[in-house]
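User: quick one
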Amino acid sequence: MTTHYEEAGTRETTEGRVFTVTGGDWGEVVEAVAKADDERIIVNMGPQHPSTHGVLRLILEIDGETVTEARCGIGYLHTGIEKNMEFRNWVQGTTFVTRMDYLTPLFNETAYCLAVEKLLGITDQIPDRATVIRVLMMELNRISSHLVCLATGGMEIGSTTLMIYGFRDRELILDIFELVTGLRMNHAYVRPGGLAQDLPPGAVDQIREAVKLFRSRMHEYDKLATGNPVFKARLVDVGFLDLAGCLALGATGPILRATGLPNDLRKSDPYCGYENYDFEVAIADTADSYGRFLIRLEEMRQSLRIVEQCLDRLRPGPVMVADKKIAWPAQLAVGPDGMGNSLDHIRQIMGTSMESLIHHFKLVTEGFRVPVGQAYAAVESPKGELGVHVVSDGGTRPYRVHFRDPSFTNLQSMAAMCEGGQVADVIVAVAGIDPVMGGVDR
Amino acid sequence: MSDGDIPATRTEIPIEVVGSRQGMFGGRGTGDTSGFGGLVSPIVLPGPSSRPYGGWFDEVADELEGALEEQGLDPADAILKTVVDRAELTFHVRREHLLQVARTLRDDPALRFELCLGVSGVHYPSDAGRELHAVYHLRSITHTRLIRVEVTAPDADPRIPSVVSVYPTNDWHEREAYDFFGIVFDGHPGLTRIMMPDDWLGHPQRKDYPLGGIPVEYKGAQIPAPDQRRSYT
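Assistant: Done. Structure below.
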């Protein structure tokens, strides 16, 4: 075994000896380090590591079990979405942004569409039903995102039950997404001007059932984690970041609210009619990972309240803006084989109306033009402020789209949270930030 | 015609042309025989607004200009123009004074823009002398306000002072804008690439950087790469 490690496990470089640890051979590394004259060890955690939430690379300088310096290496999931969007039309943009932070697709889509609608000047013309369904879907998405955060965070500290509960309950929401949008993720459901399609029959009943079921299961998280001494021992006072630190580093969302500042764009800068919903902003005063966990738990409860209010508010009506120069010509229909154009629409353009056919063709191949200018729209995503900066040169394609993804900004605070702490606490702190690399790297 | 009938001279509003568009139907190279193919129309960004800006915009502009004047800086020198468009307030700031303006926006009790929402680069190759724009969004939690600060730099000298000393959150954002646009943020503690590999050549989100991609064969037909496809502008 020792000879194996001598041959394959180490490499001499200009920066010193580099060990490749594959698991189970830590003893040999420790032994070799004890013999070395330099006590400074730099551990590369990731980009392939089960507890780094995807392809995040953590570069930790450690002294024994203490982290003396911590840095992030990102960019492993950079796919050039922003650049690609400049080569697609405005509607196609939603299919790209939905893949950014893949756990909060409906927030990405809504933020992008709000910005495009602002540029088009049609913010006031979005039908009520479309706005209510956007809120409904976003709040369901908030729950599913928080559940993944709790589940993966739990798994990383050894609580596999929390993981199984979290993913089990997330399925309830993904089933709803599949019913409504046709897909479990990458929906492209929210479109500039409204929605791709209306809620299918039976959706309202299924959402009500799911809300009821999920509410009856919420106490399991409390029972399993909230008062659990082992869970608390891992989370309390870990990943501390106070208010001044949060604002300096631009951290928003649960990290900022865990310092006691009730900053939530849904209250402070309402969009999509959030001022008309009755809900509370969850806060904590501990500024640590445990506070962030409690906030996420409470936000799920508040989201359930908003979802129920949305269901009560749903009134029949259109889900796309009336302006036929912007609205996608066809309402999509979910057929037995998945998604497609509604048969009524096909019948109209192919059989009865030449004008409709031309119109359909122009909008689908060219797209609509957006007046010159720039706009910024922001929504409160589960991770914090998700901002979209959109620039148009008056053409059928975005001139520039920039996403201020909360994961990207929040991840900067990792160093401030982890330096001086234990190696094991790095995992907890990063899980508390809840970065999703799809959003960080875009 | 009497003198009273002559309308007053219109005040000249400087316009910001960032490019031009050819033809009328957005298509290219399709042999447009309609005669409209030769049409050239400029792309004009919203120009400077005149007072009153409306709502709290005037208050913020007054406070900022007043605070800069107190510091011995001529507001007209630091703020090139103020644009109100789509209910958003934008200050175009001369790059030499960005740091002072940012510090004032953060620290002045009447302004208090505590939270910087990063910087977004935009490349306008046709905007001669101001090809690179850096766009900052600042949020005031105290006053629940949002403003935009825009700074430009020429391609020949792509330098903009770093605001990391005022807003540490811009550390990664500035690295991103450097990586994608080649804007050099003077005074940044470690301006390295953040998304692309360290040895990458070029800055991918500049307009002169091609998208790339390869044609895909689908059922015997070639589908060109996205930037080679027929498109309408």
